[in-house]
Amino acid sequence: MADKAKVVLTDYVWESLEVEKKTLSGIAELVPLQTKKPDEFIAQAADCDALLNTYAGPITAEVMGRMPKCKIIARYGIGVDTIDLDAATAAGIIVTNNPTYCIEEVAEHTMALLLACARKVVFYDRLVRNGRWEVPPGKPMFRVAGSTLGLVGFGNIARQVAARAAAFGMHVIFSDPFVNEGVGSARSVTLDTLLGESDFVSLHPPLTPQTRKMIGDDALGKMKRTAWLINCSRGPIVDTDALVRALDAAKISGCALDTTDPEPLPNPHPLRGRENVVINPHVAWYSEKAMHGLQAGAPEEVRRVLTGEWPVNVVNRAVRGKSRCGL
Q1: What's the first-to-final CA gap in the chain, in angstroms?
Q2: CB-hemisphere CA count at 13 Å for 318?
């Protein structure tokens, strides 16, 4: 073991580590942990050559400074909001993510939540479970075909949602500061226009300082009273207190949230128990196929770096040429 690299896994949510062990076999010693914060994993990670990371964090400049040998921090998921990318670049640490493992799943789940809102599927299920068999309590309901879906952010997942929504006969508009022109049948508009015109507002931006709580009192106040908010991105994109206020004042029809802030959502909480709120436990990413892609992606990136290859999904690309591994 002495001549092998050391790879620390901060935390994981799957039952077996056979994928990691097979990927790193003969290259590195895997040290699996189940931690939530850096002070819980830093003792083991202080001499690591690579860090595999799911949720534990935040991984700050100070944390990186205590891992002088670490060449790569490989995230299992898509978002890297828990990692200080500028600090990683300055330290020569490559940061990778796994941007494609669950695109279809999240797009499908977004449409499932949209349809559940439009057709009051969850509401009526609750009604029947409570012994009632009635249509009027769910009124009004509106046809999905011909309605407008507004996508906040227009990356890979949002584009898949757009394609599915178009198949349902919906008009699709989007707002993204990095995409200026329409794509396919989707039309680019300002955020204010999107909020004012959409019957469904679906959130798909990355979590950054600029997008944190971007859906607050002001944004919610610009939505139609008949509109629904859908979030399958990151919980902190939405100001939870503002959302509660909007629901209390009937400023929007309701919401469907796969991600919340905080997460998990405490019990009791003002969002729980509402007839016009659907909450899922951050499950949009999951399918058996996605799980395989999730688990394989990060260890493969670590293997590449430890064997002298440049990884595929580098987030902090400015690190190239000055990384600790010499790549």
Answers
A1: 25
A2: 7
Tokens in use for 22? 């097979």
Dist CA 7 CA 124 (whole Å): 49
CA torsion sign for 112, 221, 184, 103 is negative
The pair of structure tokens assigned to 220 is: 């919610």
Closest of 249, 174, 274, 245 to residue 257, by C-alpha: 274
- 326 falls within a domain: no
DSSP letter string over 214-279? -BSHHHHHHS-TT-EEEE-S-GGGB-HHHHHHHHHTTSSSEEEESS-SSSSPPSS-TTTT-TTEEE
Q: For residue 235, what is the domain's CATH number?
A: 3.40.50.720
Whether the predicted model's global pTM rises above the 0.90 cut: no
Contact 292, 15 (CB under 8 A): no
263 among known catalytic residues: yes
User: Do 49 and 85 fall into the same domain?
Assistant: yes
Residue of 40, 108, 197, 263 marked catalytic? 263
Does the residue 306 lie in any domain?
yes
The catalytic residue among 109, 159, 171, 234 is 234
Q: How confident is the model at residue 298 (pLDDT cuts 50, 70, 90)?
A: very high
Give pLDDT tens digits for 205-255: 999 999 999 999 999 999 999 999 999 999 999 999 999 999 999 999 999
Helix (H) or strand (E) holding 163: helix 156-167
Active site residue 303: no
Residue (of 265, 269, 267) closest to 244 by Cα position: 269
* CB-CB contact of 314 with 297 (8 Å): no
234 classed as catalytic: yes
Interval 63-111: pLDDT, tens: 999 999 999 999 999 989 899 999 999 999 999 999 999 999 999 999 9
Nearby residues of 89 by Cβ (< 8 Å), 6 or more positions away: 316, 318, 319
